[in-house]
Design a protein that fits this description.
Elements (H helix, E strand, L loop, with lengths): L3 H7 L3 E6 L7 H10 L2 E4 L5 H4 L9 H12 L3 E9 L5 H4 L3 H18 L6 E6 L22 H12 L4 E6 L8 H16 L5 E4 L2 E2 L9 H9 L4 E9 L3 H16 L4 E6 L25 H9 L1
Parallel strand pairs: 1-2, 1-9, 2-3, 3-4, 4-5, 5-6, 6-8, 7-8, 8-9
Helix pairs in contact: 6-7, 9-10, 10-11
The chain binds (3S,4R)-3-hydroxy-2-oxopiperidin-4-yl beta-D-xylopyranoside.
(3S,4R)-3-hydroxy-2-oxopiperidin-4-yl beta-D-xylopyranoside binds next to loops.
Family: Belongs to the glycosyl hydrolase 10 (cellulase F) family.
Protein name: Beta-xylanase
Organism: Streptosporangium lutulentum
């Protein structure tokens, strides 16, 4: 097929992009989105600060613009993210203990209920593990409510939307042997053993010179899949340009295609100039929306 989404669909997978509501009205942006992608992730619009700006008051206007666009185009929606230490509203940042726990669980329940039936996969919990060699949980206000906050969030999400796949999502979990990867692996293994509802693991896969695609990336996806969860590449972007960048993108696509439970790939933006990595060129389209060598490598690999 001649587009990313259609080619991925021929392999039983989706190919998505992170989308910002405030760009949907731009004709070039919408043209490329609608032509190339069959899944979207709201880049910021479903986060806690956006959806519950004051406690108990919910605002879905910007997220709905993306969800409605996706539905009208027949695209899947990845929900991102229900519980996360970052981009919390100020009121939540000032809570702690059982009050924060209740507020978090209510948030999960309300947002997942509002979007019930419309979300392919939810990032229920995002970035809950620490970087480095500790293998520990990340210290955060949510973690300080008790080590079981992650499973509580997953149970609330399952009750609210039984049809959505429930994912744990993180970065720096791409190297099969890294301490952070091993810690997430152990958590997923424990959740599966105890019947905590988890269906998928998201690998953000933000790569750059310091953090290239690991040689064991495919093996890593496969070891998680062997636990009985789907795996998804959820926020892919790769710094660089030209052939080197194209080769890295190709290796990511090939790794996903080699793992039957790798169900889809999402790139974290469409043209380079809208990337969260300001000044960088980590995406598949340049700032004039021309296809880069990385695009050709991905399309050919799919
Ligand atoms: C980023 C967005 O792209 C930016 O627009 C925002 O300012 C900060 O968050 N990991 C995640 C994403 O899970 O939600 C982050 O998105 C990038 C890192």
């Amino acid at each position: 097929a001649s587009t990313l989404g259609a080619s991925a669909a021929e392999k039983g997978r989706y190919f998505g992009a992170a989308v910002a509501a405030n760009h949907l009205g731009e004709s070039q942006y919408a043209t490329v989105l609608n032509r190339e992608f069959n899944s979207v992730t709201p880049e910021n619009e479903m986060k806690w600060d956006a959806t519950e700006p004051s406690r108990g008051t919910f605002n879905y206007a910007n997220a709905d613009r993306i969800v409605n666009h996706a539905i009208s185009q027949g695209m899947k929606v990845r929900g991102h993210a229900l519980a996360w230490h970052s981009q919390q509203p100020g009121w939540a940042q000032s809570l702690s203990g059982s009050t924060l726990r209740s507020a978090m669980l209510n948030h999960v329940t309300q947002v997942a209920t509002y979007y019930r039936g419309k979300i392919h996969s939810w990032d229920v919990v995002n970035e809950a593990f620490a970087d480095g060699s500790s293998g520990a949980r990340r210290d955060s206000n949510l973690q300080r409510t008790g080590n079981d906050w992650i499973e509580a969030a997953f149970r609330a999400a399952r009750a609210a939307d039984p049809g959505a796949k429930l994912c744990y999502n993180d970065y720096n979990t791409d190297d099969a042997n890294a301490a952070k990867t091993r810690a997430v692996y152990a958590m997923v293994q424990d959740f599966k053993a105890r019947g905590v509802p988890i269906d998928c693991v998201g690998f953000q896969s933000h790569f750059n010179g310091q953090s290239p695609v690991p040689g064991n990336y495919q093996q890593n996806l496969a070891q998680f899949a062997a636990l009985g969860v789907d795996v998804q590449i959820t926020e892919l972007d790769i710094e660089g340009s030209g052939t080197a960048q194209a080769n890295s993108y190709r290796s990511v696509v090939n790794a996903c295609l080699a793992v039957s439970r790798c169900t889809g790939i999402t790139v974290w933006g469409i043209p380079d100039h809208y990337s969260w990595r300001s000044g960088g060129t980590p995406l598949l389209f340049n700032s004039s929306y021309a296809k880069k060598p990385a695009y050709d490598a991905v399309l050919t690999a799919l």
